[in-house]
Amino acid sequence: MxxxxxxxxxxxxxxxxxxxxxxxxxRASDLHFEPAETNYHIRMRQDGLLQSLFVGExxxxxxxxxxxxVLADLDIAEQRAPQDxxxxxxxADSRHLSIRVSTCPTIYGEKIVLRLLDPKAHVRTFAxxxxxxxxxxxxxxxIALPNGLILVSGPSGSGKTTTLYSALNSLNHRTxxxxxxxxxxxxxxxxxxxxxxxxxxxxxxxxxxxxxIRQDPDVLMIGEIRDRETAEIAIQAAQTGHLxxxxxxxxxxxxxxxxxxxxxxxxxDLLSALRLIIAQxxxxxxxxxxxxxxxxxxxxxxxxxxxxxxxxxSYPGLLNKQPLTTLREAALAKVREKVVSQTEADRVVPxx
Length: 352
Prior knowledge:
By secondary structure, the protein is of the alpha/beta class. The chain has helices at residues 16-25, 59-71, 126-129, 133-143, 160-171, 205-213, 228-239, 253-262, 267-273, 301-309, 315-321, 327-336, 342-348; strands at 28-35, 39-46, 49-57, 83-90, 96-106, 109-117, 148-153, 178-182, 193-196, 219-222, 243-248, 274-284, 290-298. A hairpin with a 2-residue loop joins strand 5 (96-106) and strand 6 (109-117).
């Protein structure tokens, strides 16, 4: 969705700081600085959708890109290769945004995207996430286990990390050693050891995870499982007395198992560690903001048997073994409650 040109909030731009401040005030998650053939665009993502903030002369792009690169400590002379950096940006109440900066060359110049993260943001309760009573009970029961792997799946921007923070906050007690590996650290949690990955010095998820396992952990949170090496270490940790929480990019709870299998993780090893998979999406409400919808797949004996004895995993086959509320059904329930529109449900969780 784009605003009409005459209603854009900025008529001129000289400093990127004014754009960042505006985006923060309007609860934006991302800012896009985009060169085009004849002009230069700035857009922000608000409640999951991009909205136009500014359209100006192409010549402005080089100046704004230079400002962003200086703030992020990037090489201003390098315009042909992608770069990643960080900006710590002051906002209200002596807080600082932790902004992830990504540059990428296009045919019309460099595009820069900022991910806006407020480390002091409020950690939500399970009810605030949108979990119903049964889902809350199941999640509380699962995170109370001494070991095992819990996965939260979904695309980028679906609230996966927010769900993990809620679980960690529930577990956060001085009798537990809780450590996280994140890219980047989105919210600071007092009492939790949070480690950001840093690709420039090869501080990867797998490398940090190996180190943290030697630090007597009770609970480990891995920001994302991206490769077989990280998956195998996480599974090993979950099998040897640790509770491990992580996210994975997949379209559904069942697809998370397929995704890990495609990485080369043996199903038997995975199922010996897995306790619960949560798939989730965020839907725009009929008022303001977004609400979560969730699909919970507990890994019980029936599910293990189905996954281990079936080559092609499908929901019709799974539902014969384990009844569950799918993401589509959860979205349609929000429509019936008049929390979201049918159009929004179809956009985010379309029918198969």
